[in-house]
Amino acid sequence: MQPLIIPPAKTKFIVITGGVISGLGKGVAAAAIGKLLSSNGKIIPMKLDGYLNVDPGTMNPLEHGEVFVLDDKGEVDMDFGHYERFLGINCKSKWNLTMGKVFDFVRQKERRGDYLGKTVQFIPHVTNAIKEKIFEVANEEDADIMMIEVGGTVGDLENELYIEAVRQLKNAVGEKNIAYIHMTYVPIPGNVKEQKSKPTQQSVNLLRQRGIQPDIIIGRCAQLLDDSIKERISIFCDVPKEAVITGLDVDNVYRIPLVFRDEGILTILNRKLQLLAPEKMEQWEYLVHQMDHAEKEITLAICGKYTKLEDSYASVIEAIRHASAHLGVKTKVKWIETTEIENGNVSPAHALEGIDAMIVPGGFGSRGIEGKIRAIQYAREHGIPYLGLCYGMQLATIEYARSMCNMPNANTTEVNPVTPYPIIDLLPEQNGITEKGATMRLGGHDVLVKAGTHAEKMFGPLTRLRFRHRYEVNPTFISELEKKGLVFSGKAPEREIMQIMELPTEKHPFFMGTQAHPELSSRLEQPSPFFVELIRSASHRKK
Ligand code: GLN
Does residue 323 share a domain with residue 259? Predict the structure, then answer.
């Protein structure tokens, strides 16, 4: 058997597992810890997912939450959104390992003859493959700290191989180079009204049965963990009391690093991993303060079809928060289910009453789109600041063609392949593609910005945005749309793909669309100008 790749000697590993229930926010916790440690050098997050899909790109956002798209074209778990937003880095698709990828890799090795003569087994071959992938990333990135988040909860069959692989890591990298953090749930049952440690004890037992003794336990709880419960968890789970940290329920996830810090997590991690750099959280703290204390409030409508599950628009919500924090504005989001407008149950005027700004986010297919188009028309005609994201730009273009260019029934061929005015049409390179996995126009692309436009004021002559689409503004109709006053202010350098669209400021205070998903590259400390300008304009209008 080939010797295992060895990670750089300097790399420290922090492994995060979860227990008791899913949805405790391990991804946010990992990102928050990474942020607190970020003055210690290069922090690289990795997420290990148990499912057999190669990536989440083909999953329904209702089931799995939003698909996060990376600059390198990778379609990855939405936890990568937290990593990027907290750490301010561009993650890579290799950092999201799925069992689909692991088995692909092992099978390729087996066919190549790498295991010749051997019976290929879960242990050691699959677990070695997992470690190899982790070490490969550590080496390629020359990481100072690897944050490794194991998906799911301890005891899930589909994650057992990851748990076993991260257990083996300790021997491979040395005890002083690795810290294990286990995140659990501390309930406060309604009738007893006190914090309960039993689920944590049981979950830590499951972890210890698998050979992992946690160094830190984060107990997710509605209140700060009190002294007595920390004591109990410390005794039963064999960790120092100071290593029991509250994972407080907060309505602002950006407060989490500050909560962890105040609970003393850095003392434990610095001691265990011999880290020395002091934390640098001033700007972060200032922005969190801005979020929690903004006085001016605006209401922003998001018109979509997945509005029942906010996770499917997670990045849009975060981008709104980032921009609001920078402007010192509190933005209340109102979800508008456009099927209701489409069915005639509510009028756009009624649905958009009291709204200061509107977003139509990305989407696919035909459900609710006529309702979205009517809402966009209302926003355009009534000067409501509007931002269209991907599908939202395509639909705004269709609305403009119908209302202003005398093209009745203009549409996208995604919805109506025989429309007389195919304003939005398939990208030529998409013709003939039948496979659905990772075949859209994906990832980061440069955008050339037109001089003299609003976009130029926001970005200068060139910017880079992230994409995930199959359709585009049909080049045949561009000059007609432009003649009637629509401005295409951003284009792809390699070909005339329209990337940003706007109405001149004398016609509308803020009406913009982009074929991109700027929400994916917005960070708390570096908000997306699209969202900043939308909210700034809404806030002026409200005055
Ligand atoms: N359905 C549209 C397309 O494929 C928009 C995609 C999106 O909003 N992400 O081009």
Answer: no
pLDDT category at 309 given cuts 50, 70, 90 is low
Q: Do residues 172 and 44 both lie within one domain? A: yes
Beta bridge partners of 268: none
The reply to whether 289 belongs to the active site is no
Does 426 lie in the same domain as 396?
yes
DSSP E strand boundaries for 208-356: 216-221, 244-248, 296-304, 329-337
Q: What is the pLDDT of residues 346-400, one digit of tens each?
A: 899 998 999 999 999 988 888 888 999 999 999 999 999 999 999 999 999 999 9
| Atom 6 of ligand 1, nearest CA residue | 469
Q: Which atom of ligand 1 is nearest to the CA of 424?
A: 10
pLDDT tens for 427-450 read 877 777 766 666 788 899 999 999
469 carries an active-site annotation: no
90: containing domain = 12-284
Query: What is the rounded average pLDDT of the residues 335-352?
Result: 88
- Under 8 Å between Cβ of 359 and 300: yes
CA of 396 to the centre of ligand 1 (A): 13
CATH number at residue 51: 3.40.50.300
